[in-house]
Design a protein that fits this description.
Strand order of the largest sheet: 4-3-5
Number of helices: 13
Strand content: 5-15%
Mean pLDDT: 76
Largest sheet: 3 strands, antiparallel
Shape: elongated
Length: 350
Amino acid sequence: MAERGVHLTTAFTAEDRPSIFEVLAQGSLMSAVKPALQHAVKILATSNPARYGVLWRRFDEIYAILDLLLQHHFLSRTSASFAENFYGLKRVGTDSTHPAHLGLLRRQHWRSLLLLALLPYLHTKLEKILARQRDEDDFSIRLPKSLMQKLYRAFLAAYPFVCMAWDGWVFCQQLLYVFGKVRTHSPLLWLAGVKLSYLTADDIRNLGHKPTGPTLNPSQSIGEKFQHLVSTMVGGAAVSLSTSLSIGVFFMQFLEWWYSSDNQNTVKSLTSLPIPPPPIHLHNQETSLTHIKVCPLCRKVRTNDTALATSGYVFCYKCIYVYVKANHRCPLTSYPSALQHLIKIYTPEG
């Protein structure tokens, strides 16, 4: 058994194939980055809508452009996406005739770029359009009349099954990858004509010698100089973005944890106001029902019962409305209160 286990381990290492855990981890990295950036943009837009509102309204387009620049830079320099390079992986062509150290072919590069940056953007926009159309259809009683409307209804009904078929394909591909039956774990890699492999020491040494773009020559034309300038600017922006993302990965993971539902429940329990004690006169068993219905402010039988949510005490609507509007606190517990904390109490008799 030990000899057989050693044989399997040696074969797996010689194959230079990443494990399923590594490929799934790199795939989930960018999916955690986008929600964190989106939340940061939402905070900016909320604090100053006039200045940063456009960032929130056009977040999908801005993120797609930045992602396009980032992935193009890493595909050109390292033959890998940002997440794949972060986990020490690279893309190599499935065609054995092309040497791996020469990088990706042009068609493999552009296929990978479109599937990495453009396809997620189109999927996000499609999901938003379909969600908006579903909401409109829920409140619409009109039947589809034109051919386009009927085709749209048919697509809307078939879309969940298309997503289910895609998810099933992805699952089967990953399952076959675990057992070594296929060379790629994702249909997107298969469509791009590439597979994942480990980044070697030679690849890391060659990164510093790989040119980032055409060199500037005084004899070049204005068009070539402009192309060099644009290439330099795009490369600099991609390097800055990749460096920022590399440093901020831990911070974004922290944001994902901080705004998770479990942590929010913990924070809310720690920062919520303490529950006020019940009125003292409720402990007196000889207290009459009429005395319990007395308003703590006017000392008369309550009319139009209204509870204050911050403390739980019940008052006359007029009494508590005037008091809270003037003092912004509960008259009995002094908890900060506002008019939106007033709750009308309805009884079967009313």
